[in-house]
């Protein structure tokens, strides 16, 4: 499973990284702090899951929902933000889930484990 964390808060991405870095089902875990860094990361890899904050230094993370590597059906997006007022807009733009980053770390972790289960290769 390839996961891209897009969040400008070192505390957030470090906490998410610490939750995930030793899980065997993750083949690639990378992060971006800005829209520009996210676009650069997306040029080199198509993630299975994007954990996306909306408030970034160079713009709104929701703008990335139209990026070709995020807009494809196989890539799922979890909005992970303190901007709870953007929940409706994010879901309308086809984000798959919304999590409040002040409360929902364990729910995010459960989602990632669930997605990994569904992405694992089946028996040959």
Average pLDDT level: 87
Q: Helicity, in percent? A: 25-40%
- How far the N terminus sits from the C terminus, by CA atoms, comes to 19 Å
Q: Nearest-angstrom radius of gyration?
A: 13 Å
CATH classification, class level: Alpha Beta
- Would you tell me the structural class of the helices and strands? alpha/beta
Strand content: 15-25%
Number of structurally distinct domains: 1
| CATH domain topology | Rossmann fold
Runs in which pLDDT lies below 50 for 5 or more consecutive residues are none
- What is the H/E string? EHEHEEEHEHEH
Quick structural summary:
Helix content is 37%, strand content 23%.
Detailed description of the structure:
It is a single chain. The protein has 124 residues and is of the alpha/beta class. Helix content is 37%, strand content 23%. The chain is built from 5 helices and 7 strands, in the order βαβαβββαβαβα. The strands form 2 sheets. The chain has a 5-stranded parallel beta sheet, with helices on both faces. A two-stranded antiparallel sheet has the order 4-5. Strand 4 (55-56) and strand 5 form a beta hairpin.
List the helices and strands and how they pair.
Layout: E1 2-6, H1 10-20, E2 28-32, H2 35-44, E3 49-52, E4 55-56, E5 59-60, H3 68-71, E6 76-81, H4 87-92, E7 97-100, H5 105-119
Parallel strand pairs: 1-2, 1-3, 3-6, 6-7
Antiparallel strand pairs: 4-5
């Amino acid at each position: 499973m390839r996961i891209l964390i897009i969040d400008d808060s070192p505390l957030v991405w470090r906490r998410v990284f610490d939750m995930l870095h030793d899980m065997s089902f993750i083949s690639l875990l990378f992060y971006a702090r800005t829209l520009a860094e996210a676009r650069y990361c997306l040029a080199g890899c198509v993630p299975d899951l994007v954990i996306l904050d909306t408030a970034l230094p160079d713009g709104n993370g929701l703008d990335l929902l139209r990026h070709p590597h995020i807009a494809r059906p196989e890539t799922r997006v979890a909005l992970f933000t303190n901007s709870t007022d953007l929940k409706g807009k994010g879901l309308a733009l086809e984000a798959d889930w919304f999590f409040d980053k002040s409360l929902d770390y364990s729910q995010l972790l459960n989602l990632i484990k669930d997605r990994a289960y569904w992405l694992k290769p089946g028996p040959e």
